[in-house]
Structure formats: structure tokens, C-alpha cells
Write a structure and sequence with these properties.
The radius of gyration is 13 Å and the shape is globular. The longest helix is centred in the C-terminal third of the chain and has 26 residues. The two termini are 25 Å apart. By secondary structure, it is mainly α. It is 67% helix and 0% strand. It has a single domain, classed as Transcription Factor, Ets-1 (DNA polymerase, domain 1).
């Protein structure tokens, strides 16, 4: 799944061009801040909160998958 598909799944596909133009991909997604999102044009507080929560959840899922794969879980 790419970022645009992920955004579409959240109902936030209108931000896909901004993510693309600002080279936001999986490796930086979990590091985004409210200020970063404001800077790329995510004006609505609710949308920023949804994006940050979903990025955090995705980061946790990725960590769990890595831990499981590494045998540390």
C-alpha cells in the first residue's frame, strides 16, 4: 500500500498531493508533527489529529511486526 492509498482509506485523500510534493513517505510518516501538517496545508484540526493518530497506530503495528519477525515478542 502506498501513502495515497493509506490516505484514501482514512478518507483524507485530498492531502495525497501535498504528501507527494513534500516527499512524505513511510520512513518519515511517524515523525510528522502538527506543525509539519500545518506547513503542508492540513488546516483542519480534526484532519491533523486523524493523520497523527493513524500514523502513530501504523508505527506501532510496524514495530510489532518487526518484533515478531525478530523473535522478540
Amino acid at each position: 500500500m502506498d501513502i495515497a492509498e493509506w490516505l484514501r482509506g482514512l478518507g483524507l485523500e485530498k492531502y495525497a498531493p501535498a504528501f507527494d510534493e513534500n516527499a512524505i513517505n513511510w520512513d518519515v510518516l511517524s515523525e510528522l508533527t502538527t506543525d509539519d501538517l500545518k506547513e503542508i496545508g492540513v488546516a483542519a484540526v480534526g484532519d491533523r489529529r486523524r493523520l497523527l493518530a493513524a500514523a502513530l497506530a501504523r508505527g506501532r503495528e510496524g514495530a510489532q511486526l518487526r518484533d515478531h519477525h525478530d523473535g522478540t515478542e
